[in-house]
Structure prediction request, 692 residues.
Amino acid sequence: MLIAHWATFLPLDSAFANAALFPQIPSVMSFTSTGTTDTFILDGNTRIIVDSEFGREGSPSAYDFAKTFHQDLLAVTSLVGLPSVELIRPGGPPVGKSSIHVVVDPTSMNFTLYNGKSTNEGYNLVIREDTIRIEARAPIGVWRGMTTLVQQAALAVAAGKKLVSLPLGQVSDAPGWEIRGFMLDAGRHWFDTKFLADLCAYASFFKINEMHLHASDNLWDPVWLYGDGNDNWKKLYAAFRFEPRSGSSLKGLVTRKNESWTRGDFLNMQESCAARGVTIVPEIDTPGHSLVITQWKPQLMELGTPDHLNLSHPETIPTIKAIWDEFLPWFTSLEVSIGADEYDANLANDYIAFVNEMSVFIQKQSGKSVRIWGTNEPSNTSSISTNITIQHWDFPGDDIPVQLMAKGYSIVNSEQAFLYLDGKASDGGQFPQELNQDLMWGGAPDGKGWSPNIFTTNDPSNNTGIDNPLLRGSIMALWNDWGNNATTALEIYYQLARSLAVFGEKTWAGSDARASGLTRGQFDSVYPLLNAAAPGQNLNRIVKPEHGNIVYSYQTVQNGFRTGVESVGPPYTLTFSVQVASLGPDTGVLFSGIDSKLHVSSLTFEATGQLYSLNYTLPNYLSTKVEIHATREYTYAIINDDVSSKRYWTTVMDVWGEYMQLGNMSFAAPAQVIGGEGFIGSIKDVSLVLGS
Prediction:
């Protein structure tokens, strides 16, 4: 028998190694090869069969996951005729040749995390010449095994193999840590639920299992918040994303109706994420970061600090309980976050009492446990309950994680030095646009790279072992300090895409825990292929050109013409000639798609609910040639072939009320409809070409 270690894998463009699988993200714990040259061939006749004894149990069940798996295999391989998923009873007829047999058995195996605790996410993948058997103790385990198979199929296709074949042997795999998540700041930036569901699908492909939604917050502008004698705090952007029911006592909390989630939309998104093994962990942040509540009920404000709640006011805690009482029934997660960060240190006792009271309340109302962000709590008389998980983020600004664990606290590592991202205008480059690859692969004190047990780069005594029973895992974070206009939703995805993949590797396998872990070179080779193949979403907005690199080309079109192409991701070049017969403040749309619109007025792009003007006025009744070039970093126009004068679409961001910063904008091509929405004139010589 051979044990195939990932460090010995051949490059994807070399011959297929009979004794090994392709390297993938995250790497698996072990693959034991039979040592033969025989393979399992995946083709259009392969059956997917779920053992019925436990196959329908759970939500999602193994049968539910298998149906998603079926669709994913079709997506990454283009197989024709792959049969629908079947249920068979134990002891029934043999499953037959060329089949994938899915078995859940709660009693037959036990997989453990690095700390020795059991996990339901482990699985075995037994590959024989005629059959692949995916077996686990719970549905989520077989889903992780299915993801491994989908990645192998995608990589086989990317390597140009005529047949999707897998070497014979057995994969045994389980994650190192329980929590492997990412946080998205949806309080300062609006995201619709379709985009969030797509993010779940993408993250799931790298075996990430949580999306932490920071769903309430405000922009931070000290002058507006704390300036003497002004009421600017009442106008500062603040948002609460969950929309109360009709007739609710919370009427008035949500003033941005077009930037809130209805219960139906949220439940659909939550279910879509769960269908791919990702749990939504919601956060409503109090008693700091609470401007949206004090704008609604100013009497609850801490005097002189509008974004803080006055915990001693008799209405404050009942109001917060009422908010949770309304929305707890929405959430299927076993845990929620109450935020509880960056509150006044001189009110530590009030703060601690509030956190403990909310933990007891939420547990009593819903059975859910509570998480909070790490924070400074200088009290000699009281302490946070050890039933509460602390999400560390600021070393050493909040309590030192190893000291907290020594006191019995469970910890989630979100240390900002490794795991924080921010919008594109990150103040002075404080946080990178994607996770720092040098830190992730070699930034630990021993030079072996980051993993969830690493909290600092320069002091090993402040880190812990991978087997610490109180280290639950890690959550990376993407903040939106600069607000709605700083980035489009797709620009947020561009920041997350590679980061989620490397984070998936480091939180599943670690950096030095397994000989089977990926090297940086292997990751760099395989990531672009898996990024392009990730099923269940199309956040890259990939399209198949009509021929060559031309998405479409039309000499003439009727106003309102639909192309059949919803959107095209950068890089692209969109060229057209336009003659407007009417100019005014609202003179229609030149191009529109699911991600963006290009308005006639000032050649203004609209994306994620925001407007970005080029400040160029098209001449009335004259034909103007426009060439739009886009990459993931910028979008610019060339007017009438004047290449010496590129006009960039930009945004102006208020950086913490201290200065204004200019940033370039990247837009997906609004490719679905040409003309319309009140446009009067003609558009011709349209071409949309991949590449900028």
User: Anything to note?
Assistant: The domain at 550-690 is CATH 2.60.120.200 (Jelly Rolls). The chain has three domains: 2-173, 179-512, 550-690. DSSP finds 14 helices and 39 strands in the chain. Residues 139-158 form the longest helix (20 residues).
